[in-house]
Design goal:
The chain is of the alpha+beta class. It contains eleven helices and twelve strands. About 50% of the residues lie in helices and about 20% in strands.
């Protein structure tokens, strides 16, 4: 460590360039990690807030709520705790701003409704409560909302915590209101049944229905799996690129110091000592680079607009930081092998 640190101090520019490259790689990696988490939340935020175990859909609905139609009598009283759900997609406007949204028709006191953060609950027909993401775009309590493909006008009475579903905001209302928006959702027809029951798998439903574990349902949301796989592959490739870049830089530096290593070997320094020096140098570079990259990521997060779906999972970022350091150490093994092959006589001669 002593030899590694002192060499870095004497060659500040050379090692600063290597650290700078690692800073940019780690910065991009951490931003992608935050973006991946943010995009995941855009799709599943509302579902996670249900804190449910399963969802019951029509067997022919291809695991999507809006395509599912269920007779409420077919699922009444089947599970320990259950909540009916009716869903309708709209474009909501307050006269100035238009937003894609899902209208969720739920029963009074349903566990599907998140806690209010502002305003009051919807108590009569044509009143709705919106999730907080609509407030961030400019909607306010008291707004009169017009909807695409409907003559109904809804009054916004309050906001819940952010609860997006499939990257769209949500309007919560009663079943009577959503029946006006979509006559197919008559009094005894629902789209889905959300279940809280640890023993739900042992409850039989009729052949026309399908019971899905909630995580399986989330993974079947349109674009969810493909989007996550794409971002995860990008992160994996960044790890590989990081190992290659660090390995190449350190290998070139090792070749430039062949004569120096030859002199050190002639003075009695062992291969193990010199290998530990290279590894220590890589560790210092990796730690400095990733810490700076992490700091820049958090700083960037403070200035990003709310429209950017980014969320930092601190445990994930710490894991990525450790993996990035380990990958950089792995990339330095080429240099360690080169050091072991240095012949003192040839290097000095």
């Amino acid at each position: 460590m002593f030899l590694a640190w002192n060499e870095m101090i004497r060659n500040k520019l050379k090692f600063s360039l290597i650290i700078g490259v690692l800073v940019m790689i780690s910065y991009l990696l951490f931003l992608l990690s935050g973006l991946a988490s943010g995009l995941m939340d855009l799709n599943r935020e509302a579902v996670d807030q249900w804190e449910s175990d399963a969802i019951i859909l029509n067997d022919e609905a291809n695991q999507t709520i809006q395509q599912s139609m269920i007779a409420e009598d077919d699922v009444e009283g089947l599970f320990e705790e259950q909540a009916t759900l009716k869903q309708h997609s709209v474009i909501a406007s307050n006269g100035e701003i238009e937003e894609n949204a899902f209208v969720f028709g739920i029963e009074e006191d349903s566990f599907l409704l998140p806690e209010l953060t502002e305003g009051e609950q919807a108590e009569i027909e044509n009143e709705v409560v919106a999730d907080y993401s609509l407030k961030e775009t400019g909607f306010e309590v008291g707004d009169e909302l017009t909807l695409s493909n409907s003559d109904e006008v809804l009054t916004l009475t309050g906001f819940t915590e952010s609860a997006k579903y499939s990257a769209s905001s949500i309007l919560f209302t009663d079943n009577k209101t959503i029946e006006k928006l979509n006559p197919m959702l008559s009094e005894d027809i629902i789209n889905a049944l959300v279940v809280r029951d640890a023993d739900w798998q042992n409850t039989e439903v009729n052949d026309e229905l399908e019971a899905l574990e909630i995580e399986e349902f989330i993974e079947s949301l349109p674009g969810y799996t493909a989007q996550n796989l794409t971002l995860n592959f990008m992160i994996i490739f960044l790890f590989i690129i990081s190992a290659a870049v660090i390995g190449i830089f350190l290998y070139v530096l090792t070749l430039q110091k062949t004569s120096l290593f030859g002199v050190l070997k002639a003075q009695g320094f062992s291969n193990g000592y010199l290998a530990r020096t290279v590894l220590a140098q890589t560790f210092i570079i990796a730690v400095i680079g990733t810490v700076i990259g992490l700091g820049l990521t958090f700083l960037t997060g403070l200035f990003l607009p709310p429209a950017v779906p980014i969320e930092f999972n601190y445990l994930t970022m710490i894991i990525y930081m450790v993996v990035l350091i380990a990958v950089a150490m792995l990339g330095s093994l080429f240099s360690v092998i080169s050091v072991r092959k240095v012949d003192p006589l040839k290097a000095i001669g």
